[in-house]
Amino acid sequence: MSDPHAPHADASGLEQELLEDQALSAAERYAAFLAAVADSGRFWVAESGEYLLTLFDGDGQELLPAWPSAATARAALAQARAQSPNLAGYAPAPRELAAWRERAAAAMDEAGVGVGAFPDLAMQCAVVAPAQLLEHLDALIAESDADAATEADETDGDAGDDSAGAPAALDLAQAQRALAQKFAKPKGD
Predict the structure, then answer these.
(1) What's the alpha-carbon Rg for the chain, to the nearest Å?
(2) Which portions of the sequence form the region Disordered (predicted)?
(3) Each residue's pLDDT tens digit, 87-139
(4) Can you say how many angstroms the Cα of residue 151 is from the centroid of all Cα atoms in its chain?
């Protein structure tokens, strides 16, 4: 992973870091997924025309694979296509978190379809229920908003500080570690 204290200069820096994160454990990738989705308000699925790619885990549970960026989805799909040519028509498609929350999350929960968060190149991932994913995202967003408000309050008194009023930079590595410890539990527990 890149320097955890360096702010992301642009989206391509975050894309590269997320691509590097594919080598992390499922729990660490889940934390990276949460941080990226909370920050951007979107995630990517695999779509072919009117069809969405779903997978089945070792227990037979259907899941919707979801990636934190188009680049991570492309990389995983390219690897999967090499092993399963029937995936040739699938490409990354963005989903806005707010729209997914309103239109799909409850239906997925009712149907027993989980979310496979940030599948790696072997399509291994953390599996969570849509409602649980939304709880984790809401907690992270609330925490981020509270941190930003606290930092804004602290910088209000610094008239000479150029960063006054600027949003707090998210320390992605620290957030990933905290989220991995807070939310990710091995599937067998």
Answers:
(1) 17
(2) 146-170
(3) 999 999 999 999 999 999 999 999 999 999 999 888 889 999 999 999 999 99
(4) 25
CB 91 within 8 A of CB 46: yes
Q: Helix, strand or coil for residue 185? A: coil
Token output for 129: 């229920």
Summarised one tens digit per residue, pLDDT across range 125-164 is: 999 999 999 999 999 999 988 777 776 666 665 544 444 4
Amino acid code (one letter) for 9? A
**Strands 91-96 and 42-48, sheet pairing:** antiparallel
Give residues with Cβ within 8 angstroms of 92, minimum separation 6: 44, 45, 46, 47, 67, 70, 73, 74, 77
Q: Please tell me the distance from the alpha carbon of residue 129 to that of residue 114, in angstroms, as a whole number.
A: 5
Is beta strand 91-96 parallel, antiparallel or unpaired with respect to 55-56? unpaired
**pTM of the complete model:** 0.72
Report the DSSP pairing between strands 51-52 and 42-48.
Answer: antiparallel
* CA distance linking residue 106 with residue 140, whole number of Å: 20
